[in-house]
Amino acid sequence: MGRRGWVVSxxxxxxxxxxxxxxxxxxxxxxxxxxxxxxxxxxVIFGTAVxxxxxxxxxxxxxxxxxxxxxxxxxxRTVMVSGAIESGNRRDEARIMANWLMERGVPEAAIIVxxxxxxxxxxxxxxxxxxxxxxxxxxxxxxxxxxxxxxxRAGVSAVSGAAPSRFRLAELWYLxxxxxxxxxxxxTKAPPG
Length: 193
Fold this sequence. Notes:
Elements: H1 3-33, E1 42-46, H2 58-72, E2 78-82, H3 93-103, E3 111-114, H4 120-129, E4 135-138, H5 144-154, E5 159-162, H6 171-188
Parallel strand pairs: 1-2, 1-4, 2-3, 4-5
Helix pairs in contact: 1-6, 4-5, 5-6
C-alpha cells in the first residue's frame, strides 16, 4: 500500500471510530434509561458523594429514593448500601445511606451495610460473596450497564437494574466515562475463584 493508501485508510479509520463510539454510548444510555427492575432478593444501592455535614447529595438521594421504592413495593426483601469512606471528610457513605433508609421505615435487619464498596467492581465482589438469588442494581442511568455487568461477572445471577428518571446535563460526562470504563472492565476484571 502506497503513502496515499495509508492516508486514506487512516482518514477512514479516524472517521469511523468516533461514530462507532457514539453508537456504543447510545447503547449504554439506552440500557440505563430503559432498565426495568425484576423481583429479586436484594437491591444494591451504589454510593456516591455526601456533603461535609453527612447528608446525601442529590444524585445519591435519588438512588436511595429508588431503592426505597423497590423495598416498599416488595420487589426486594433486603437493601445493600455500598459506598466508600470518603478520604476528604471521612464520611461513611454506606452508613449515611443506611441511616437515611431507616429514617424512612426500612428496618435495620433489612439493610446490609458495605462501607468498603470503593468502586463498582468491589461492590460486585461483596454482593457475590452473599450469594443472593438475584439483585437489582440501583444507580444513575449511565452506570446501570456497567453495574449489571460487574455483578454478573462476579457471579451473581438474575441481575436487573433501576435508575432514577432525573437527567442532568453534567451526566453526559459520566456517560462518556462509563462507556470507556465498561470495556476496560471487560478486559481486566476476572471472575472470582
